[in-house]
Batch of 3 targets.
Target 1
Amino acid sequence: MACRTICQLLQRRLASSATSVRLSAAEVRGRRSAVFSREQARQRSLYPRTEKIEVTLQIPGLQGTLLVMNKGLSTPHSCARHLTEWYVTSSALALVDGKPWSLHQPLTQSCSLSLLTFKDTDPLLVNQAYWRSCAALLGQVLLDAFKEDFSVELLRLPEVLVTSGAFCCDVVLDPQLDAWNPSEESLRSLTRGAQQLIHRDLPWEPLEVAPPVALEVFSHSSDTHLRCVFIHVYGTHTHSCLTLYLSLRCGDHVLLSGGPLVARTGLCSQYEVTAIHPLGEGKWGLHRRAQGLSLPLQQQAHHTVWRKLRSRAEKLVEVPTGSTNEAISDTLTLPSAPEQTPPHTPQQ
Amino acid sequence: MRLTIQMLISHGRVARKMGLGPESRINMLRNILTGLVRHERIETTRGRADEVRFYAEKLIDYAKKGDTDEKAMKMANFWLTEKDLIPKLFKVLAPRFETQPKAYTRMARIPNRENLDKAAMAVLEYKGNPFPPLQTAKRDNELTLINQLLKGYREQRAQQARQDVL
């Protein structure tokens, strides 16, 4: 009996020390991407035979057009490709049976489809999705920007209203960088990194995953606590552990998101990282909020207007944090820590 | 004067020739101007509309002086062939444009006339007329991304202005 408890204690201690071994950022990315690809392949293999589904289009001018597509393989993007090139380039989000649906997510049953653009009469969903995508891009740029010696952890991508003026991304940088404040030159180089990503026109591949898989994707993060909070922040707004999380891959990076993102990075045209504000000491170090401003290809602004919007985006954006998030994350960090011992015991 | 070839070439000459001669031109413009004052929106050829604009605005400037003014009354009497429009000019049109310093008319081009001459046509109107607008300014949807950002910007500016006042 005593032997067993000692063994368990040893396992937990050794497991925790295994997770605290710092893997290089590139390796972490590669592993996350590998898990993502594995899960994607598994979900595709759920449909071994190509079955057909009927998709009715609800686009102005093409009401009631019926498309026969493949189940589990065809995406709204492939439906748009059956129409004209304009639909492919201009559509940012899709509405499947009234639900917002990412353009690259496969369709699983016969449904009605409508493609949303930035110039619709009601582009609220598209605007919100675009803001989320720009925040995701900002997170990706920050992860890539620093040297290998410094660790960068994304805390969360808060849901901000478009009228607040800027999208935000909460990060925690390496403790060695606590005294660092970004200068204009560093912000400009971050902007350049973002512009390079935009120029590569990478698609955001979505994947709905179950919580254990999501935990596995992020299991190689350097700090278990960060990972748990990151996941539970997105779990709380649905208040259920059985919901699927939307995981997205862009290039090599995998991240979690609170809702669908737009189709690809090439849809952004004007993009600038405007500021990085320190938020104060939090549980995992100095929290910082990186903010940016962006406009899509179809809605470019004149440079005078852009300058005014940018000066507003430099100011700190207050994000209303729900108190439930913190409470639930505190109670749920403890049970999830032992969950991690099974994946790591084989290493010993 | 010397009868040169240059006299036949009209490069850089801005004054238009209309009708049979200068007097005919003035008479024609007078008729068009009377029609404009009566109906407040008329349709003519482009050249005539452009010419009348100058005289229409000058007439309003004279009307603003008031009907007791000797010169203003003489001008109104000359330019308006239908004399029942003189009270309309002084009592309706002049008060309408009291606050504006200039630009009382608006000209919009329309498709060519259907007749054999296919003349280029235009619509000339006094601003503030009771008819529905000629051209509505195409405004982008209020809910687009850039308009939402600008709305937030304007609200913030208004809030700051209010805080500065306090």
Target 2
Amino acid sequence: ITRVKINELKPLKPLSHGLSLLSQDENGVVLSLGSESQRVIVSARPFRLDIMEGRDVLMSLNSRGLLAFEQLRMRKDTSQVDPEEEEEKVEDGMWEETFKSHSDSKPNGPSAISLDFSLPGVEHVYGIPEHADTLRLKTTDNGDPYRLYNLDVFQYELYNPMALYGAVPVMLAHNAQRTTGIFWLNAAETWVDISSNTAGKTVFGKMLDYVQGSSETPQTDVRWISESGIIDVFIMLGPTPKDVFSQYASLTGTQSFPPEAAVGYHQCRWNYNDQEDVTSVDAGFDEHNIPYDYIWLDIEHTDGKRYFTWDPHKFATPKEMLQGLMDKKRKMVAIVDPHIKVDSNYKIHNEIRNRAFYIKNKDGGDYEGWCWPGSAGYPDFTRADMRDWWASMFAYDQYEGSMENLYTWNDMNEPSVFNGPEVTMHKDAVHGAWEHRDVHNLYGFYVQMATAQGLIRRSGGVERPFVLTRAFFAGSQRYGAVWTGDNAAEWDHLKISIPMCLSLGLVGISFCGADVGGFFKSPSTELLVRWYQTGAYQPFFRAHAHLDTPRREPWLFGPENTALIREAVRQRYTLLPYWYQQFYHSHRTGQPIMRPLWVEYPQDPATFALDDEFLIGKMAQDDKHFTFRKLILTCVPQVWFDVHTFQKHNGAQNLYIPVTISSIPVFQRGGSIIPRKSRVRRSSTCMMQDPYTLYVALNPQRTAEGELYIDDGHTFNYEKKEFIHRKLFFANNMLSSENLAPDAQFSTRSWFERIVILGASKPSKVTLKTADGQESQLEFDFDASMSVLTLRKPSMNAGLDWNVMLQ
Amino acid sequence: IMMSCQYLLLLLLSVGVSAVEVQRPRGVPLSKRQFYEEGNPFTCLDGSRTIPFDRVNDDYCDCQDGSDEPGTAACPNGSFHCTNAGFRPGFIPSSRINDGICDCCDTTDEYNSGAACQNTCREMGRKERESMQKMAEIAKEGFMLKQQLIQESKRGLEDKKAKHADIEVSKNELEKTVEALRTVKETAEQPEKEAKERHLKAWEDQKALIQMEKDKARMAEVFLELDDDGLLGGVDQVDSVAFESIWHVIKEKYISEAIPEPPAPVETPPEEIREPESDNDSELYPEEDIPDEEEDDEEEDEDDDTDDGDFKVSPLGFSIKLMLDDSHNFFLVSHCYLSSICRALLRRRPKKRRMTMMRGLCRPTTKKRRASLMVTRDAFEEAEKALREVDDQIKNLEKEISFDFGPTAEFAYLYSQCYELTTSEYIYRLCPFNRVSQKPKFGGSETNLGSWGQWAGPEDNIYSVMKYDHGTGCWQGPNRSTTIKVTCGKETVLVSTSEPSRCEYLMEFISPAVCQEPSTLDSALHDHTEL
């Protein structure tokens, strides 16, 4: 990683939290970048940085000379200014800007920073979420740059660089040789311009260039612009995608490890009307035999949009309700938004006001804006003491009616201000030494951070929190899940959910999902079914609906559709062990859970722009059927097994597979071992002790490997080495389980009830050898037509060493 | 007393059964016991394969249909039978076996999970029997009420049909009346029409005269205008007769610079035309002429007011007998005073005119043609109106007669009734077969939650649900609609309301009209206690 930091020599006020200085030499220097062949050449005039590996330029900074740094300055009317510096022409909007009826007082004048990056040899860049756009970023020559400015967007448009709810200023660049990344650490409004010398060239044009040998090297040029702050850039040099992920994770952290239940299915609606409604929806899931783990309450559950309270009529006895859910091993999420009703009879408001924790307006009073409760104040979450106090509000004796199975949802934390410019906060609002313009994109990040701390603290640091946020920033992965905001019940919104979550995964935020069914409008039954089938294979799986839409609980569309939705949700639950292990892996390594194909096939250019199929770890989900009703399995050089039929498909070809409304095209990669629990119960917690089935998919070399991770599913005890982590390995006709964490301790009642080997040949006998040296013969079934070998009831405990020999 | 004895008997019987319980694998109902014979190979119930008996309930799913694991959670599609002695036996999905949650009241589903379940079957059975007994009693009484309702609606229907026939008759009469009145009116209008024509002719003549005078004056003006230099020697010097002859030729073409033609005189409205009176006695009767009748009239009005509150023409309550006298004036026979149409005719006029009309109607006189004409017109219009009203009534009656009030018209009594329910915020109003509405408790306008749509229950019981739709539209949403679930009870009352999804209301309504014959319930009760 290389960090480049450019600051003012004598800034009027600190432009960033104090960090290290960059050493440099006036004549230009060459600096070593750790590994021998990597170095950076710093040229002074004109200023330019070139990052090299061997003879190759990996990246150049300011090669186009777009470096800009507008200094902060004092208002002329408030200070004595050196007349010699009075050269600059005053333009409109420099000292005050108006937008519609809003004005920005700009106390330090116009400020902006900018820097350009050239990426030789690169044609594909990704990241900088959140945008409703394709996975591969487009060039912006003919339109607006990609904008990063957290906003509460009403009915957002697709395939558009407009800013949405969250911002992660991280871009990945990839070609067949190398993956690199740029992390532009800045929380102010940011714009990213992308241009490319090959953009607009047709495939034929590129071929012609190639044949004629006349082509210049393809190159992508990127320019970052932010409204305030300093230039502070981290450059991740890869070289593999996995290296970039871990380099970035070393800067901002990895995905938080959620409670296992949060990986299950979530049932949400704005709003479940009252306790009776909650009870009947809960009963509906049992009646229709569909599992779920969390039922959600939106803003209407509160007493007049006062968060941390309950409507006294509709939710008069919340603990009774929560206990009812707990009796069924289920949980609830209630919303807590950061806008606080200005009401002197409201404890939370009074405390925040008395402690002077509210964000201030430019004139020094408490900033007030309109949101759900009417007039509202906005706590200054950038203050550590404020976050500490906020966290304390989640204590069971503070948050009345809360219990250990109540979790939290932070919405509207961009922050949303209904009567503010672009429905957010005025940029000249004041956070202590900072203006809101400097920290805007960090606000939602801090809200979720404080909330997650609250949930951890209420259990004495024992229980893992679960917090969903709409706004986010680089590092938000450490505090919970995000969703793609207020989407709509349209086919294109279903389609865009894939690149949106893939883009988030690339920049560390793996726990991502979209509102299943679509938030605005009402989905057709087919769309709803398809959305469940897709959502079941995305990391955060929650159905949600707008207040004005008709009810859409899974059983309201006739028995056939109920069955289709039940099947999709059940598939999710059978795969929970795999999902959970993926979360653990992501938590440990920073690798994304939901991956674009190019991450696993970095040398195959055919995968670089694919965003209608994706991988979960090593499994593939394909969504082309939503548009074509036919599946095209793209040319990755592997063997793939249909997880439902066990049909084997050879890779390195485009495959057309017809699909029906009941088929979800999901494939297991040859060479992988995936643990499942086939006994789907009413919630994930009910399945804790259940046995596993192993699906061993052999590659042409007749090997396979996978992992199994088990812990208690909800505490931080895994940090105290209380877990089971095993490597499952198949080679030389032997499947074995090896301990990946010999120093860890955990015991489970779970056992292996079945082992299914795909792509197998028929053995004459199968022998199980357990840790105590005992050998026994296993019964088996062999399906010759599909080459599927099923071993019956090997019964060994999931936490122990064993091997199974095929002879 | 009879019923509880029966239960006691059944309970004893059930205890007897459990005492000699037949051995069978866990989770198998008695009815399927013969398929699971200890020691014999087990064939999956779908016949797909046969396995050794020790693989039944061995916690591994061998059968596609899940039938080999009735007592474990091994098969994803299996089901587990709880005996629930003391309560109702039942099946649960086998995924609920040993999941730590008590599902069967006899605790048999949690035999290996450590869950501390209490056997609640007796208690549940008792409660269920109590509530079913209560329901049965309600149903019994409700069903009796329902029989009454059926009888009433039968009678009501007959009444309505009779009424319909009657109205049809009076409609015919009324039509004749209207036609007769029309003739009378047109006849009576004849002299007025003639007078009007006379007057119009006079007016035209007068206009022509005026025009001639104006022409003359203008000619003089023009002459002066043309002779502005006085060469012609002024008016006095000119041969005005000669000019007059020229003037006739040029007057159409000559455009004067002088003031344009004066506007035509505003036409006098015909009402204001003084109609030549054939007699000089234009004075109307002074009011004190008929003090008694006035009082009578007032009294009758008051009676009406106390009777119906709001006046409505009762189609059966009147009959207009029309008589024409020699001079083609008409009068109504005296008993029309007492008929509602007559009263209506009188009441709807201001007092003074009412008096006039009364005289016109009830004391016809040949002396006052003018007054009688007015009366004639009024009577015609009123009769026409009455005819329209009768038509409406016929339509309403026909609608009501053809309405689907259930298989035995047991819901007919709800027609034109309304039922209210007050919540903390709103007053909900259900007018069956008409509409549902909502009104804020503390002022504000009423919102239509839907108009009568159709019966919308499940196929086997379509009269259990009413659907009202096309109510007031919602912002960015559908039109409001309401579903009414009707359940059996002795009273007719709206018991609850909710809005499960925005603008889609759900109400619970109790009515004896849906009560089932108690015998069917009895047998259901009987089934439930049987083990």
Target 3
Amino acid sequence: MISLKDIVPAAQNNINTQFILLDKGKISLDGQHKTCLALVADETAGVHFQLWGDECDAFEPGDIVRLVNGIFSYNRNNLVLRAGKRGKMEKVGEFTLVFVETPNMSEIRWVPDPNNPKIYVQEAVISPYSRIFPPMQ
Amino acid sequence: MDLHMASKLIYTATYEAENPIEVSLREAFHLLEPQLRPPFSLKVPTQPEYLNLNRAILFGILCELHFAKVHIKHLHGIVTDGYTFFTSLLTKVVNELYSKLVDSAKIQLIWITKELIHVAAVGFDALLVALLRQIVGGDFSEGNLWLCQELVSLFLFEWDCLLEEEPLVLASALYLFLRLLADHYRISGNSKIEALKLMEINLCVRVFREQFHLCLKIGRDLIRLLQDLVHIPEFRVIWKDLVLKPTEFRTNGFVDILQLYQKRTSSRYLLLRITPEMEKQLRFLLTHVKLGSQKRYQVWFMRKIFCVPERETLVIDIVRFLCCAHHPPNEIIQSDVIQRWAVIGWLLKSCKKNYVQANVKLALFYDWLFFDERVDNIMNIEPAILLMANSIPRYLDMTHTLLDFLFLLMDNYDVERKGLVIQCVSSAFGVLIRKGVIHSLDVLTHCDMLSPCLKESLGKLLPANPPPVSYCATLGFGISDGWGISNSIIGPTPFIWRGQRFTASCSGQAIALTNKITTTCSTENTGAPNSIAVTASAKLSQMTNIL
């Protein structure tokens, strides 16, 4: 299980992690499928999550979710965590998870590592918090 | 299709992970399925086998309606621990899975509970308490009312058994159904609730009249609950007896209602009105969430609790729980975790209805009114003072509202014992200062923005030399308390509460209420021209309009 602060964009279904859903955006249609952006977080960081299809209605803010074989990559120009074709999301509880909303892994500019172009590294922070789901005052 | 196939135990939504408890029960059942039909093995099981057999039988009882009787016979045959494990497992199922159980499993649950009572299973009282806690306050949905109905019937029907084996569970039932009645009486035109109300009254009256010593165990919150019900004839009589004829209850040692006021209510009763899930969330909030990071949790909590407006009354029970049943350790108090006073402030602000707000404030201050350092807990009174002090200056209206309410309470809660109440509240302030919960009342008395009237009243509350505690806590006899009001309580005591004047004879004395409440005269009970009564709703709205 990986902490959200340690996820790195990659074209692999290798993210196994647990987080709490903080907020859900509007459901829109991508072709025939429902899609919805959400803010999720764990004790170490937050990230934008792309819900897909039935997932959009199945999860609510406050849900604690376990993700296996998820993928953290650019999807239509958004850097998002998602289950993807090979991943699976499961609700395992509610409420009782501590979280932070900064850093937000989606609000970071990643560049290929000069020493190993196959791997991404952090170059700069675009925004400390999500610009789409700012923290509640 | 085999009609006798085991049903599932719980509803699981898509995307929901399997529940570990359900899995362990189901797996045990499928593993041992061949052994669950007669003829049963006579081989003595090892300890792990015994536990697994219990799990399998439990699953079978809840999910195989047609074989339930076979399963219970099996259980009776193999049990070697007085049903301890079985009952504790069932209690766990109730606490963690009740809301997810399929309907047929819920019906079976009630059935097996009765069976366990009949064999005096070890821990059946904890099972009953777990069931009582699953009744959601302010919820009038069919499922919830069904559970209410089943449990009140169970308590009435199994009365003798319960009395013989675990009488204290009747005290829990009394607390719970008194509380529910207050909510149920706010609904009209529902025939199901009418029948339910009658049974609830029946049960409560029976406990009062036949097992009053159990009522004594509840302590002061019993009165808080009863006072919400004095508009119901059966409870008005009980109230009158409590105040005027304590000997009617034929319980040795009980001679005065003061004895109830002076007994702090154990947290076990206050927990009754909080579901395990709510308890878990509140304790989590107050243990792990830093002040400043609580907003999202509050939104989620509110969404669950206040999904329906009637559920607002739950806040009364939550505040009482927070004051009395959740006492954070020093490390938490000194950390940056959100404190109880902040949670209570937010809850109070969220209440829309006047009567709920008033009752929430009463719940917040209830342990102040008869506070006695020797038997009361400073942690019960701490949230109120911190909420008042920490609301300055940003939320000054909160401080005003609370102080106003406190003084109103002191003057009106029990007019005949006003001197005692003042003394107890004064003592509460004193203890809070002495133990360092606040440095001094200067934060209040020297606050420019607080009304001079309030500050003056506050100043009077703190004598330089506190008067000696001059009442006998154990026997409840009142003696002149140094405030100039004679409090001899032997014999009928005239006083006013919630619009009814109770007295054997008219004192002929106009009782001056504070200059904030003007009285209206109506002669309800005594017919004496000088008696003063303030109608309950007028009083409550006066109290809340000021606030």
